[in-house]
Amino acid sequence: MNARTLSDLAAPVTALIALDAKFSHLPAPNVDFCPVYPDRLRLSLHDDLGAFEAWREALNIDPAAVVHRVQGGGGTLVLKVHGRFAGAEIELVGFGLATVPEPVELGSGAVS
């Protein structure tokens, strides 16, 4: 892999500036850019899936494109979706508590 320079990250840096100008009222995400994916801006939101949804709507990303997963032994819900904004690929990731259904006692409420 060729060494990259800071200027190779111009697309995600420009997108971040545009996001701030347009959506400064939204909750602040963790922001990452990486020279391995120089056109990608990653926005991650922790413990607030409502903030993930607000960003998804603001970026006009189709809700059907959201991938749902669990991690941490089933305790953490992970939502991930990709879109484009201001010339950059946006990877939006949300982490929240997975809701676990209450255990049901066998035989309770059984009709005989």
Q: What can you tell me about this protein's structure?
A:
By secondary structure, this protein is of the alpha+beta class. It has helices spanning 10-23, 49-58, and strands at 30-34, 37-46, 67-71, 76-85, 88-97. Strands 1-2-5-4-3 form a five-stranded mixed sheet. A hairpin with a 2-residue loop joins strand 1 (30-34) and strand 2. The longest helix is centred in the first third of the chain and has 14 residues, at 10-23. The protein is globular, with a radius of gyration of 19 Å. The model has no long low-confidence stretch (mean pLDDT 89).
Radius of gyration: 19 Å
Overall pLDDT: 89
Structural class: alpha+beta
Morphology: globular
User: How many β-strands, per DSSP?
Assistant: 5
Q: Note the beta-strand portion.
A: 35-45%
Cα end-to-end separation: 69 Å
Outline the low-pLDDT stretches.
none
The helix/strand series, from N terminus to C terminus, equals HEEHEEE
What is the number of helices?
2
Looking across the biggest beta sheet, what order are the strands in? 1-2-5-4-3
Helix content: 10-25%
* Major sheet description: 5 strands, mixed
